[in-house]
Specification:
transmembrane; 43 residues; mainly alpha; single chain
């Protein structure tokens, strides 16, 4: 029982981390692209 609970908590943490990364990474890419375009326009 304890092992399964620990495994479940680990899987929940892993899935939460993956979901967070899936949400954060694209937003960071968009932010970087916007910054680059703004810099290119200024130059």
């Amino acid at each position: 029982m304890e092992r399964t609970a620990d495994e479940r908590s680990e899987w929940v943490g892993i899935t939460a981390f993956l979901l967070g990364a899936a949400v954060i990474v694209p937003s960071l890419i968009v932010l970087a692209v916007t910054v680059i375009t703004v810099l290119l326009r200024l130059v």
